[in-house]
Automatic annotation (TrEMBL), chains A, B:
One of its GO terms (molecular function) is DNA-binding transcription factor activity. Keywords: DNA-binding, Transcription, Transcription regulation. Gene3D superfamilies: 3.40.190.290, Winged helix-like DNA-binding domain superfamily/Winged helix DNA-binding domain. Pfam families: HTH_1 (PF00126), LysR_substrate (PF03466). Signal peptide: none annotated. Belongs to the LysR transcriptional regulatory family. GO terms for cellular component: cytosol. This is Regulatory protein. Residues 1-59 form the HTH lysR-type domain. It comes from Thalassospira profundimaris.
Length: 305, 305
DNA sequence: CGGCCTGTTGCATTTTTTGCACCGCGTTGG
DNA sequence: CCAACGCGGTGCAAAAAATGCAACAGGCCG
């Protein structure tokens, strides 16, 4: 939409922190950009940027306007999707911010199912930790968030939630593999590999360990759950992950078991969106599919247990 | 905002039903307008109008887009209001759709109170019946609605409600003036003046009369409550009105008494807005003031009775 | 059929936007 | 301490976009 160009320029300036840099990014002369910004500010009735020596920065008015623009642009996309629906074929784009655990099995399968029914719909999958995911929603960068143990913010609206235990991942020949019930203290006695504090799994572990006057002291600390899963095969250490990100490999080399709920209570895997926002049709439908799939997943697990 | 001009043109075309008429309204040539519309349709990816012989009409896609525009324009105004707040002085505009009963006393007083505190805020007061008022909200033509007995629609969100009896308005020398309790059947035996069916008062009267196998048969039927109040002075007939629109005149010529609640149950005077909409600051604050004033008004009446 | 209204298009004109060169200013670094 | 650098802002001419005017094609009505 050409008429939104000014807003895109404002956004670029805000991002670059400098008119000249933004001008280069947007393939424009600094002077042209400068005049558009000044012109808009005059028309709008207020300055949008603080002019600092060395660049510019959004002032509160600019923040407000930029937020309005993002909300509006997102709503326009929704309308375009609805119109595309009207004309027959289903097009659109779904952007989702999610935790790492969803990457190996759950999300790829769900996206494939959706795209089989609606080939015109494209996807963006952004891997974000629980704090980033909600900012992602607030800035309209993602339509949906599927996150383990998010830090609840006011703007976060829960669509669906399922509990997830924290599981121990280990080699089949690990001493703990034969235990009926795995206690946290047993895990901490063996070498273990854990995610960093940014992740919900670690948060639950730390909390539970402190309660038992113990401490999580990983031999390897990482931001990658994929690394955790592979590392335990080498050192025969323990890893931690939520079950939705786990699947017993065919060769039986790896196995996983929940930590006793007496020690570590289950966390929540939560599907959410920005509060009060009307999602584009494609995203709204995908959200419904995810909610159903999560529900089915939970029912299946309960019936096994 | 100059960049919204295309949308304003689209709205004008939709309103006029013809590009040439709209072009005249907007001080443009038909050719220029035509090209802007066609250009936008191409950019948008869908036609907005059905081309009929004799003019154009919005198609569903156009309806959707126009609704998006109105919502967006209203949100932009909200942002401008917030920015004005930021820079110190409170500016803004409040538009309210209301029933006639609010015109003589309640609304003028409330607006004056608000403007005394915030001289920068201007007002639009649109008199609408209970059906129109909600369409007024849905098209973003009014921020607030204050209506007696509205027909609830899905898009209507109640901010505050107070009950209002249906009162009889009469001259002090009317035979019913001395009665302790006024029954509906007594009223219907005397010549009476009533509003048309569009109004909540009449709706309640009709309903109550049917229940008693009677019928409202006014000697004068009108859309103006002001006329009702003045007419009863001449013929010495009975009029009907809700108490918030009534005040005993100094000369004591006119008086009013509620109809027994056994016959006509009280209706609701309801302050509402469009569901889910974030109101501009000025409107939101005025709504809060109105809600408080309505509450106080109700408390004051209850303490008298 | 002819008048009348509709949306649409080619072309000249006007208005707006852009690019280039330059200014003034504050920070930075030799 | 002064020169170099990067910043936002401005005057002016060129480029681009929007507009007005006139004319065209097509449906409707008397």
């Amino acid at each position: 939409m050409r008429y939104l160009q000014t807003f895109r320029l404002i956004e670029a300036v805000a991002r670059a922190g400098s008119m000249r840099k933004a001008a280069e990014d947007m393939n424009l002369t600094a002077s042209a950009l400068n005049r558009r910004i000044n012109g808009f500010e005059e028309e709008f009735g207020a300055e949008l940027f603080e002019r600092l020596p060395g660049g510019v920065r959004l002032n509160p008015a600019g923040e407000l306007l930029l937020h309005h623009y993002r909300a509006m642009a997102s709503d326009l996309e929704r309308v375009q999707g609805q119109v595309a629906d009207l004309t027959g074929e289903r097009r659109g784009h779904v952007s989702i911010a999610c935790s790492q655990a969803l990457l190996p099995y759950f999300l790829p399968e769900q996206i494939a199912i959706y795209r089989a029914a609606h080939p015109g719909v494209t996807f963006s999958v952004n891997v974000r930790d629980r704090a980033q995911a909600e900012q992602e929603l607030a800035s309209y960068s993602s339509d949906l968030a599927l996150v383990f143990e998010p830090i609840y913010l006011v703007d976060f609206e829960v669509i669906h939630a399922i509990p997830q235990t924290v599981d121990v991942v280990m080699r089949s020949d690990h001493p703990l593999a034969s235990r009926d019930e795995i206690r946290l203290r047993d895990c901490l006695d063996y070498p273990h590999v854990a995610p960093t504090h940014r992740f919900g799994v670690r948060h639950l572990l730390d909390f539970a360990a402190r309660r038992g006057s113990r401490q999580v002291s990983p031999v390897v600390e990482t931001e990658s759950f994929e690394l955790i899963r592979h590392y335990v095969l080498h050192e025969n250490a323990l890893g931690f992950q939520i079950p939705i990100g786990l699947k017993i490999p065919n060769d039986g080399s790896l196995m996983f078991r929940p930590i006793s709920e007496r020690d570590v209570p289950p966390g929540n895997l939560i599907l959410g969106q920005l509060r009060g926002r009307t999602l584009p049709v494609a995203s709204a439908r995908f959200a419904m599919q995810l909610a159903t799939a999560l529900k089915d997943y939970q029912l299946a697990r309960e019936s096994i247990v």
